[in-house]
């Protein structure tokens, strides 16, 4: 019972690490527009920082342009300012009733920099997964020391945790290869 709970808990945490990787990779521009790129931008609204998607509808006009239609007209300039000051490096255009956010083309050098950033994110995720493996193995050793499991159960469980780790790390590699292809495609 202890081993099953440990395995399940470790698996869930590893999946959470991969989910966080996907969220972080969504923030990295590929040259194509998608509304998820604006998810981390907050707008000052009546003294509170509010996510942009709660203040406006976000749509794609074409493959390189995002349209932002605020629910209230008076917040248009505040949204524009928040986007301009963000780390996205885009230049929003205020049309009076909506904001257009054109995504500039990426240069070859910028694409390479983004690939490096993607690899850093991947390595951080792999480290997180390996740390979870280490924690699980330490728990197994503690169970053995406390005589809650046998040596055979500990050895089998460590092998299972290692297989789980390998599966999740290969999943990270697949995600990274896909993202690199996406970034390098012109």
UniProtKB/TrEMBL annotation:
SUPFAM superfamilies named among the record's database cross-references: Ribosome recycling factor, RRF
One Gene Ontology cellular component: cytosol
Keyword Cell cycle: no
Subcellular location(s) per record: Cytoplasm
InterPro entries on file: Ribosome_recyc_fac, Ribosome_recyc_fac_dom, RRF_sf
Gene Ontology molecular function: any one: ribosomal large subunit binding
Main location group: cytoplasm
Ribosome recycling factor domain residues: 24-184
Pfam families: RRF
Gene3D superfamilies: 3.30.1360.40, Ribosome-recycling factor
Highest taxon listed in the record's lineage: Bacteria
Entry keyword set: Cytoplasm, Protein biosynthesis
Keyword presence, ATP-binding: no
Biological processes per GO annotation: cytoplasmic translational termination
Primary role: Responsible for the release of ribosomes from messenger RNA at the termination of protein biosynthesis. May increase the efficiency of translation by recycling ribosomes from one round of translation to another.
HAMAP family: RRF
PANTHER family: MITOCHONDRIAL RIBOSOME RECYCLING FACTOR PSEUDO 1, RIBOSOME RECYCLING FACTOR
Family label: Belongs to the RRF family.
Protein name listed in UniProt: Ribosome-recycling factor
Organism: Candidatus Kinetoplastidibacterium kentomonadis
Lineage of the species this protein comes from: Bacteria, Pseudomonadati, Pseudomonadota, Betaproteobacteria, Candidatus Kinetoplastidibacterium
Chain's gene name: frr
């Amino acid at each position: 019972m202890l081993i099953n709970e440990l395995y399940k808990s470790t698996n869930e945490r590893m999946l959470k690490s991969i989910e966080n990787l996907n969220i972080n990779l969504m923030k990295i521009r590929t040259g194509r527009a998608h509304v998820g790129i604006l998810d981390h931008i907050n707008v000052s609204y009546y003294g509170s920082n509010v996510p942009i998607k709660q203040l406006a509808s976000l749509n794609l006009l074409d493959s390189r342009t995002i349209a932002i239609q605020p629910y209230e007209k008076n917040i248009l300039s505040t949204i524009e300012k928040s986007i301009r000051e963000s780390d996205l490096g885009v230049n929003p255009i205020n049309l009076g009733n909506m904001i257009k956010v054109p995504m500039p083309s990426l240069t070859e050098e910028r694409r390479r920099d983004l690939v490096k950033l993607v690899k850093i994110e991947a390595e951080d995720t792999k480290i997180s997964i390996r740390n979870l493996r280490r924690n699980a193995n330490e728990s197994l050793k503690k169970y053995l020391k406390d005589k809650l499991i046998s040596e055979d159960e500990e050895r089998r469980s460590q092998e299972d945790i290692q297989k789980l780790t390998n599966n999740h790390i290969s999943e990270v590699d697949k995600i990274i290869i896909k993202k690199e292809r996406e970034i390098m495609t012109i």
